[in-house]
């Protein structure tokens, strides 16, 4: 199914075309029509299935048709600042040719960013992408108004509950209108996600996307070792398995620091990335700015809140 078949707003279709989107993924084929019809939704879908565009596109479309300046129209709650930034950038690209404004609200940055977030919230950005704790901090200040909110989106809800955000989520839900469209996305559906969905969703459409198998070229192996043997195994694999680069995940930032230090001591060219480092993307050891051609894509000018003029 092509995106043009969803009958989305022409200005939004320009952003879709500039993002090189042509054919919808299975989750998009099922989710987009349900949201366009105004139904609550609970969807089981993992990262990589196209779920972000699946909820961004219909939300942008419907906000464009029922737009009110100076009012927050949609709130997207996510578990981490990294995901908030990712969705914000995705949103910026898709909505570039529209009048929709947005802001990412997340912790771990300086006081100046908090002030910028406050101004955006007071001005009423159309779409807010936030982490629960940071939004609670703004709510406690008393200047956030959700009285005209149309959409509430919970992305990676299972991760948020695992990270202990249940109380924060409940607090935010109490601050938004009962008359709204609620969309819940989760990679897994344990009982507590079902309980949350039952409390916040009204007659929802349920969508389950099967977990896709990895491509045949990807080889998966498992090594059963004791904790103290892991560093030695990693060094052995890096020395013996041909590779151009390697990405290693650890269970905590302390383990990241320890492993990086150990690898450097053994003459490996290793860098660490964790939440103790500066939060700006440009400081990441794996981040390289992308060049932008004159093809309608929007260069990253560092601004996180923007409002585009309406077309006449």
CATH architecture of the largest domain: 3-Layer(aba) Sandwich
Q: Quick check: average pLDDT?
A: 87
Count of helical segments?
11
Number of strands: 7
Sheet with the most strands? 7 strands, parallel
- Quote the CATH topology of the largest domain: Rossmann fold
Number of domain modules: 2
Trace the largest sheet across and list its strands.
3-4-2-5-6-1-7
CATH class of the largest domain: Alpha Beta
Which structural class best describes the helix and strand composition?
alpha/beta
Which bin fits the share of residues in helices? 25-40%
- For the termini, the CA-CA separation is 31 Å
Q: Can you tell me the residue ranges where pLDDT is under 50 for at least 5 consecutive residues?
A: 288-307
C-alpha Rg (nearest Å): 21 Å
CATH superfamily of the largest domain: P-loop containing nucleotide triphosphate hydrolases
- Any idea what the shape is? globular
Q: Sketch the topology as an H/E string, one letter per element.
A: HHEHEHEHEHEHHEHEHH
Strand content: 5-15%
What does this structure look like?
- The chain has 312 residues and is an alpha/beta fold.
- The protein contains eleven helices and seven strands.
- The chain has two domains: 206 residues, P-loop containing nucleotide triphosphate hydrolases (Rossmann fold); 51 residues, no CATH class.
- The protein has a seven-stranded parallel β-sheet with strand order 3-4-2-5-6-1-7, sandwiched between helices.
- The longest helix is centred in the first third of the chain and has 15 residues.
């Amino acid at each position: 199914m092509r995106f043009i078949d969803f009958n989305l707003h022409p200005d939004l279709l320009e952003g879709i075309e500039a993002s090189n989107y042509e054919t919808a993924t299975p989750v998009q084929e099922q989710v987009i029509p349900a949201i366009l019809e105004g139904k609550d939704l609970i969807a089981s879908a993992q990262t990589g299935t196209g779920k972000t565009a699946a909820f961004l596109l219909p939300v942008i479309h419907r906000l464009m048709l029922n737009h009110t300046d100076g009012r927050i129209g949609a709130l997207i709650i996510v578990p981490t600042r990294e995901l908030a930034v990712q969705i914000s950038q995705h949103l910026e690209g898709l909505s570039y040719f529209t009048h929709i404004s947005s802001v990412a609200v997340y912790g771990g940055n300086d006081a100046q960013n908090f002030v910028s977030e406050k101004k955006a919230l007071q001005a009423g950005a159309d779409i807010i992408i936030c982490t629960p704790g940071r939004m609670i901090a703004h709510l406690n200040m008393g200047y956030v108004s959700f009285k005209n909110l149309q959409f509430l989106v919970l992305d990676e809800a299972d991760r948020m509950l695992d990270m202990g955000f249940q109380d924060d989520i409940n607090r935010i839900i109490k601050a938004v209108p009962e008359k709204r469209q609620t969309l819940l996305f989760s990679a897994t559906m344990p009982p507590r996600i079902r309980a949350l969905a039952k409390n916040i969703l009204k007659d929802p459409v349920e969508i389950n996307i099967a977990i896709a198998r990895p491509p045949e070229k990807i080889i998966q192996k498992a090594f059963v070792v004791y904790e103290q043997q892991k560093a030695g195994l990693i060094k052995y694999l890096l020395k013996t398995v041909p590779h151009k680069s390697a990405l290693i995940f650890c269970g905590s930032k302390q383990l990241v620091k320890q492993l990086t230090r150990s690898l450097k001591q053994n003459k490996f060219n290793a860098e660490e990335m964790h939440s103790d480092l500066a939060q700006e993307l440009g400081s990441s050891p794996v981040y390289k700015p992308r060049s932008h051609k004159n093809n309608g894509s929007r260069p990253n000018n560092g601004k996180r809140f923007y409002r585009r003029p309406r077309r006449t």
